[in-house]
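User: Assemble these into one structure.

Assistant: Restating your components, then the assembled model:
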Amino acid sequence: MQNWISTIAVAAVLSAAGASAALAETTVGLLLPKSGVFAALGAEIDDGFMFALEEAGRVDEFTIVREDTEVKPPVGLAKARKLVLQDKVDTIVGVVSSGVLGAMRDFVHQAEVPLIVANAGNDHATGKSCSPYIVRVSFSNSQINRPMGEWMYEQGIRKIYTLAPDYAAGHQMIDGFAETFTAAGGEIVGGEFTPFGQTNDFGPYLTTARATNPDGIFVFYAGGEAIRFVKQYGSFDIKADVPLYGSGFLTSPLYVGAEGDAAIGVKASLHYVPTLDTPENNAFVAAFKARFDRMPSEYAVQGYDSARLLLGAIDAGATDRASIAAALPKVAYTGPRGPLEIDPATNNVVQNIYIYDTVKDGDGLTQKVVGQVNGVRDAVNGCKL
Amino acid sequence: MSDAAFWILQLLNALQYSMLLFLLSIGLTVIFGLLHFMNLAHGALYMMGAYIGISITSATGSFWAAFFLAPLAVTAIGAVLYFTLIRRLRNAGPMNQVLVTFGLIFVFLDIVRLGWGDIALGLDAPTALQGTTKFLSVSYPTYRFFIIGLGLVVMATLMTIVSRTQIGAMIRASVENDDMAAAMGINVGRLFFAVFCVGCALAGLAGVVAAPVFSATTGMGISILIPTLIVVVIGGLGSLQGAVVGSLIVGSIETIGAAVLPGVASILIYVLLAVILVVRPAGLIPARV
């Protein structure tokens, strides 16, 4: 009798412990900028991440610790340390700035904590400084732009002038484009890297670009600089002579509204466009709009896919840091962006790249897909996993 | 594009940027010259001008309503700052002034984030000023001509007031020696407040006028502060002519530098600043000789 009661008691305690464990099995550190120039992107990724957990009905399985990187590499590294050593997170998700990613790369690699990169596109993170613990679900800078070089040559464009901000991402975006464009037979007739975050007036650069008589201008700008650039480009009324092409962040749905009519006709390449007509994306966009009352941007999708990847790893039986890191690269599914898998050679995402035109739709602007390159995969670039 | 057209366009770009710098630096330099007060929050007032202008435009549907009302709204903000903080700090020494007004930049930055969000906003130029205008065989955006014209009008008006009117004489007297001016029966306190308000209104005007070209971002108040301070230091603290000369020099060097020597354009202006500080520490045209 005594034994019987104690057995029940032990079983009750065990099942209670099991139930509470089921409520929060995995601790996730969400490392995103909440202030500074990338704050809006951090908020989009956070929304996308939480939306995926809500959609799966599995918010309760996760304890989420949020930290602000402020777009400052030393702050990002300190916050990553805090998440790993103090909060004992099972995985870190986030990182918008490539600088922050560079600063914390060695730490997460040595601490053997899986990191799902939800934005930072620095080529080296899945190239020569790749790590088995760093899985990137967003994009690499050159991945987005390489397909654009070939596509533009096919459209009959031969002479291009390039502009981008003078920092790592700016150089990698332009290099990715120039590599395939010149390999196809196109010519870069000139280009400039503008001081990052200090260029208010693009007038002098636009005037210089025009003086080289190119068939078009190819640029990478994001955020406030993208709005400024596109609006100033529009004010010079040179669309007919020198059409504008770019990395898709230029006319992202997040801020194309602020660019207004100047953005019409700008053609750009990106890994996600909210108007993709696939059953997966239509369902995603409808649900996202119902929840947030706005269209999802590529950043929201990156947050969403980060969560999908993590859920996939856990469904495959992963429970701790080592098993999550091992399971993440094996997750593959068809999501809003199309088929998505992680390249086992680099841990970078393999995905479709879409070339889209910004067109008028009633009072607003929308994206019309005019080209598509399937399954774009980065070269190994010196990565040894 | 011919060589001549290229240079005409670049000169127009330089003039346009100089005029925006002038609108901003004149307020900063006059407030310093008269009140001996280093108001770093000037950049934040410029940002408020842009954001308030965007809100007024979307509420009324008219850019011109924003053009007149946003500077008034920024003046009101400036007046509140004057009575709560700046008047108390007038005798607190430059370090305290710099620290307090630098802190204000971050307060305004978060006010803007809470009120308008983190995503940069754009503003359309009024319909009449959209498109381009032909000038000396080149097409140049009409709105940029408008900025150049506005800068010249403000410049001429201020110069006339300062050099030809009684108010101007009182201002000059107070800048030269405020104790003596007070002894001569000038209400220096009230004059200071009036000048401070005009400085704030000009910052607000610069904000709303710049918004269609530069767009409105939460970082704009800080990023414009450095070129504005360089204009003030090069021109000479507190001097109207100094602000005119300084903004033309800085605007031209940044623009022509970006066109001719893009690799070193961003450091050229700092080199000039260093040279001026060594050769003429008081600036090219100082207010007090």
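The interface with chain B takes residues 35, 37, 39-40, 43, 192-195, 197-198, 200-201, 203-205, 207-208, 210-211, 213, 223-224, 227-228, 231-232, 235-237, 254-255, 257-260 of chain A (CB under 8 Å).
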